[in-house]
Amino acid sequence: MFLVSGPELVIAACKAGIGGAFPTPNCRTPSELDSWMGQITDALSPDDGPWVANMITHSSNNRLAEDLALVAEYKPPIVITALGSPKPVIETVKAYGGLVFADVVNINLARKAAAAGVDGMACISAGAGGHTGHLSPLSFISAVREFFDGYIAVGGGIADGSAIAGAIAAGADMVYMGTRFLAASESRAQDDYKAMIVDCGPDDLVVSSAITGTPASWLKPSLNAADLDPDNLGGPVTRDYSGDGAHKRWKDIWAAGQGLQSIQAVEPVATIVDRLEDEYRLAVSRFQRITAGEEHMDRYVAATLAKANSQ
Questions:
Q1: CA-to-CA distance for 285 and 291, rounded, in angstroms?
Q2: Which segment of the chain is annotated as a signal peptide (predicted)?
Q3: What total number of domains does the chain contain?
């Protein structure tokens, strides 16, 4: 949600009862980050969902120490680390009772995060928008559960309540959603970006490391508009996670995940969350009906076999 998630989106999400996150590099200076964190904490009450700071811990982030000092001051309940080891933030966040989640894209990184002592992981799977993963969310959850008993949030193509229910049934504790909220009224995405999200589907995406140096999922129409050929983007470039550069990455070249097919209109966060909850409850109800039917079928098969054996 680089350049997309701001205080308005975070506050709206928390008021709707879910966690609201934003990457700290969305603020161009530590002073601006100070202002954002103050705005968020002033607006929220203990009854609201938790707000989340997403921090890049890659060595290219020369502002990490300054941002971490503000984290210590404002105490976000959850801090998610991305594109680097979670170790630099663990001591600070745990000192005030916060939780540290590591953003991981493969099993090797997940093992390293577990060894570092994180409280949870955001398992970024195939279908995620922006910097994406390659593993199936189902296999990712299963593999991580073999060695990690903390919180698991899974992201990647999750955009409706049925997908949330499926992730929970597969062993996740929560889901990590970005694309579903790109076209929210409170999102800072440009109007043309929101319109593209509404108009496009999964076939309008391409995964490439040619823009930032890390595999990311991009909207083909935005690449075309930037005079780039989605079918011939070239090889990976030197890693650069900023919004700068010749291609104006993130600002004019837009990312999205495979769940964008579910997005039909620009709507307030509260409306989106209400719909997700309704869809989730319908999915749970369907699952309960199906499993009840299976139980009935099991009893029928057992009775039939018993009758056959008695003859």
A1: 10
A2: none
A3: 1
Q: In which order are the strands placed within the sheet that holds 120-124? A: 20-23, 51-56, 78-82, 99-104, 120-124, 151-155, 174-175
Distance of CA 183 to the CA centre of its chain: 15
Q: How far apart are CA 151 and CA 77, in angstroms?
A: 14
**Residues spanned by the domain of 143:** 7-286
Burial class (CB within 10 angstroms; exposed 0-12, middle 13-18, buried 19+) of 74: middle
Task: Give residue-wise pLDDT tens across range 189-222.
Answer: 999 999 999 999 999 999 988 888 888 899 999 9
Of 91, 123, 119, the C-alpha closest to 109 is 123
pTM: 0.86
In terms of Cβ atoms closer than 10 Å to its own Cβ (0-12, 13-18, 19+), residue 168 is: middle
Structure tokens given for 246? 């010749």
User: Is the confidence at residue 156, as pLDDT, over 90?
Assistant: yes
Which has the minimum average pLDDT: 58-67, 162-171, 176-185, 286-295?
286-295
pLDDT digits 0-9 by tens, 218-253: 999 999 998 888 888 876 666 655 444 444 556 788
- Integer Cα distance of 242 and 52 in angstroms: 20
Q: Measure the CA–CA gap between 245 and 105, rounded to whole angstroms.
A: 25
Residues in the chain: 311
DSSP single-letter state for residue 267? B
